[in-house]
Fold this protein.
Amino acid sequence: MIHLLTSNWSEFISGFGWTLLSSVLALFFSLIIGSLFAILEVVPNKFLRIIGNIYVEIFRNIPLLVITMFFYLVIPLYIVKINGFTAGTIGLTIYTSAFIAETVRAGINSVDPGQMEAARGQGMTFWQAMRYIVLPQAFKYVIPPLGNQFVNLVKNSSVLAFVAGFDLMYQGNAIASQTFDTVNTYVIVGIFYLIITLPISYYMQHLEKKLA
Amino acid sequence: MQNWIDAYSWINIRFLLQGLWITILISVISVILSFIIGSVLGIIRYAKIPYLSRIVGFIIDVIRNLPLLLIIFFVYFGLPAFGFKPDTIPAAILAMTVFESMMIAEIIRSGILAVDPGQMEASRAMGMKMSQAMWHIVLPQAYKKMIPALVSQFISLIKDTSLATIIVVPELMQHGQVVYGQDPNYIIPVFVAMAVMYFVVCYALSLLSKFIDRRMA
């Protein structure tokens, strides 16, 4: 196993890097998109609420692979040529943003409604109250679930292997098919994933206990 | 427009529906198996048996934090090295069951933890054994609390079966690829059809879970 690791070190590390990069990019963009849709789901305007709801329900109930493959096949066919990494990261972002929207909405709802009323009563607009009063309090509640979303995101980024995204899973498959040493290769790939996911998920468990 | 009509010919739609049937079959078998295994593992982890609970807990944490795709690859391409070569559908069911059992074990454990410890103490004080109190008093209350979490886990299981397309399991995603492989003009119609099929099944389940939750509360 050590030999397998050292002789394919650069492939493993580059796969690890692409997995991490894709996850971080997808987290960043899905946090922005997800928070926007979460706010849409709680605004007073009924029309906007419905749009927010439709987005969240659609992308939560369709497999990530379907979304990713769609972007991988359709965008190059009709719009621009993009590589597997970009298509995969777009798919991950859209899928994750629906889950983050649900998480953030739950966080907003767990803030005492009196906070919003009091802020409005002070003469703030809805958006000001959201931005300065409600969201900062909501984010405290949503940090542990968001951490768990990030763990899911890292695990889900393995779908990049389907679209030639050069991530850890893709490199692992390439190495496994070259060396025929499937068991050891997949064990090493698993350890690389655990290096990212285990510490985060233990830390989030610790945070949950502390906040509860 | 003609593309859409051609793509939605009865032969294609029937082929996609056959894929959906395999998807549902794999999901249902895996969820039943993982519910049983997950319950046992969850109770073992909760029960704090010396060494055993620690070991089980560690295994649960490790498998939960791995991508399901890796487990599918390991079962299908790794296990033959140990002299066990499963067919594609059993391999998918095995991989799903291993992964989902660990997810469900965590749900069960937190469900048991959410039951007031006074319930256990009171049953013990009434002269029940630990196992009796668990079976008759604590678990029924715990299962009621975890219905939403279990249903949403089932929904992600259904979505995750699409990953099994990589080992050529004849499920919905795989059948979709076969259909749009005939003609690039079919890609969008087929993706829409697949998305609708997954959506209908998963959304119906999430509505059911909300309904049950409201009835129980």
